[in-house]
Specification:
Number of strands of chain B: 2
Largest sheet of chain A: 4 strands, antiparallel
Radius of gyration of chain A: 25 Å
Order of helices and strands of chain B: HHEHHHHHHHHEHHHHHH
Largest interface: A-B, 28 and 30 residues
Strand order of the largest sheet of chain B: 1-2
Distance between the termini of chain A: 62 Å
Strand content of chain B: under 5%
Radius of gyration of chain B: 24 Å
Structural class of chain B: mainly alpha
Structural class of chain A: alpha+beta
Helix content of chain B: 55-70%
Strand order of the largest sheet of chain A: 2-3-5-4
Helix content of chain A: 25-40%
Shape of chain B: globular
Number of strands of chain A: 11
Largest sheet of chain B: 2 strands, antiparallel
Oligomer: heterodimer
Distance between the termini of chain B: 54 Å
Strand content of chain A: 25-35%
């Protein structure tokens, strides 16, 4: 009987040590699977906003994802001004307004195409449509095109850093954290 | 230590050390199989052979494949296809087998459902089989990534996005799975590891479990007859082979198994040599491009039915329906409340349920392939609703079934 309880105690002690080891190794496994520091460090892109032409969609790359940059014409800005929610989606640099968003449909992640005449985006996969501010005009996408974290730096835009303008968009629910 | 004597020959030498005679008896010559089973029971053997083909062809592909996002596409489409002697053969065998294995798995599953082979003591056979189905699905998906073509890349993008859980917006989890913000080098390497090591190991283990689960309840038969295997085996061993309801697995039943396997292999190699392209998506012959989406994204044919259950709903509802479709088959032994383990044709409403389920899944498969527009998306929507509805009514229609 005495022996049994000794064995039992040793079993429990071993179990406790093994449990600690198992949890520690699970943590190590989780961390091994995390994105590498070099991948995270490459997560910043700087855009020179003076080079874009009005109503011409340019696709940039940030974290490997396509980023749409669309400089708005005066007419588009006027139209957006009528609906304050629309204007809030645009980024103002100097006197110019830009739509800068992830070029991935918020439905299933396909890349929508831009039609400069209609001034709208169409995602052909499931027929989703967005206007020139990236707001949904036709389902199935559940929300407007996501806006990447950005910081305005003079006439440059740094993607990957969260500036005050971006934080305001998050607060107002204009975009989800991309 | 056991007592060893000087061996009379190699067989005796091995027998003293490995008990090969006992092993042969338990696994082959006295592994009893009912007489009244048809060719549909040979699907298990066909699956084992196809898995062997996948393993061997995979080993040869592995010798030249490069798990690197810049080299992967050419290592498959140029090196293996053009340079390696008979490299094309391994690729076509591997590609066709990966597709055909699912056809056989579905036949194997629906045979089990039709004859009630998941019931009354055979639940673990069914559950281990479903675990194998999941493991094969993961194996197929991770393998599909490796040539790093357009469809590989975008399938990787869309499927990993599912883990964001729709409105839960768990992007951190998605990035963790990928090891990057998009499917990139880390993603390719880890899916390569999963495809060639971890999942195959799991599959081999699960095959062991699946076979083991068969050992005590034994294989079902065409009439759902409850056979006393011990008594029938005794009759057979006493020499009354004609009246015994069972036969040896080897060599008796294996002869029939091998005939079916032979016919299967003729069809299989016909596909390998003349119609290998049915298993290859044309879009995947464009190298992966993260800045361009293919016009229409769809999975391989064997995933179309569950893809179509995801598609006609809004994101969150679709994900829930999709998750439902993935797990519900596991519960079949418990949702079928009838005591009968007989062919569907001799049961009550279950007879109609079986055919409705089979036809519904074929419709879902067809609708998953076409673009979700107009009448097709309507058909897909109702077929998805029907699928869920059929599972909900299953316990009710089987509860009132009379014992036959």
């Amino acid at each position: 009987m005495k022996n049994n309880s000794r064995r039992g105690f040793m079993g429990k002690a071993f179990g406790a040590v093994a449990g600690v080891g198992a949890v520690a190794s699970l943590y190590a496994m989780k961390r091994s699977w995390d994105p590498l520091p070099s991948v995270k460090a490459a997560g910043f892109t700087t855009l020179d906003m003076s080079q874009y032409k009005e109503n011409e969609l340019v696709t940039e790359k940030w974290r490997g994802k396509p980023i749409f940059v669309l400089k708005q014409t005066a007419e588009m800005v006027k139209k957006a001004e009528k609906n304050p929610k629309d204007l809030e989606r645009l980024i103002k640099i100097g006197n110019d307004y830009f739509l800068v968003c992830l070029g991935l449909c918020t439905h299933l992640g396909c890349i929508p195409g831009y039609n400069p005449d209609e001034k709208s985006f169409l995602c052909a996969c499931h027929g989703g449509m967005y206007d020139f501010t990236g707001e949904v005009t036709k389902a199935p996408p559940p929300r407007g095109l996501d806006i990447p974290p950005f910081k305005i730096d003079g006439d440059k835009l740094v993607l990957g850093e969260e500036g005050p303008e971006y934080k305001k968009m998050l607060e107002n629910g204009i975009t989800l954290k991309a | 230590m056991a007592h060893f004597t000087k061996a009379k020959n190699l067989h005796d030498w091995l027998n003293q050390r490995l008990a090969i005679d006992t092993l042969n008896r338990v696994l082959a010559t006295e592994y009893w199989i009912p007489k009244n089973i048809n060719f549909l029971w040979a699907m298990g053997m066909i699956l084992a052979i196809t898995f062997g083909l996948l393993l061997i062809s995979g080993i040869f592909l592995l010798m030249y494949y490069q798990p690197n996002i810049d080299l992967a596409f050419d290592s498959v489409n140029y090196t293996i296809m053009q340079e390696v002697g008979y490299g094309w053969l391994w690729r076509h065998v591997h590609g066709v087998a990966a597709s055909v294995v699912f056809l056989i798995i579905y036949i194997h599953m629906f045979t089990g459902i039709y004859y009630g082979s998941y019931k009354n003591g055979r639940e673990m056979i069914w559950i281990s089989g479903m675990l194998l189905f999941v493991a094969f699905s993961a194996e197929a998906f991770s393998g599909y990534m490796l040539p790093w073509g357009q469809m590989s890349y975008w399938a990787g993008m869309v499927i990993t996005n599912l883990f964001a859980g729709g409105s839960l917006h768990a992007d951190g989890l998605v990035e963790w799975i990928r090891g990057d913000y998009i499917p990139a080098q880390a993603f390719l390497n880890r899916f390569f590891m999963l495809h060639v090591l971890l999942i195959p190991l799991a599959i081999i283990g699960l095959i062991g479990l699946h076979f083991g689960a068969l050992r005590i309840p034994h294989v079902n038969n065409q009439d759902g007859e409850e056979i006393d295997f011990d008594a029938e085996a005794k009759k057979y061993l006493a020499g009354d082979k004609a009246n015994s309801k069972v036969i040896r697995f080897m060599n008796d039943f294996l002869a029939k198994d091998m005939m079916v396997v032979g016919i299967f292999l003729i069809l299989f190699f016909y596909l390998v040599f003349y119609h290998y392209d049915f298993a290859m998506d044309p879009v995947n012959f464009d190298p992966a491009n993260g800045l361009k989406t293919p016009a229409h994204i769809y999975p391989e044919w064997y995933f179309l039915w569950s893809y179509e259950i995801l598609r006609p709903f809004s994101t969150d509802v679709g994900l829930i329906a999709f998750a439902f479709a993935q797990v519900i088959f596991f519960l079949l032994p418990f949702l079928d409340r009838s005591p009968n383990a007989v062919p569907a044709s001799r049961r009550g409403l279950f007879k109609y349920w079986f055919w409705a389920m089979l036809i519904d899944m074929i419709i879902l498969t067809a609708m998953g392939k076409v673009p979700p527009e107009g009448v097709f998306s309507a058909i897909g929507f109702y077929a998805a609703i029907t699928f869920i509805g059929l599972w909900i009514i299953l316990p009710f229609i089987t509860k009132f079934e009379k014992k036959v």
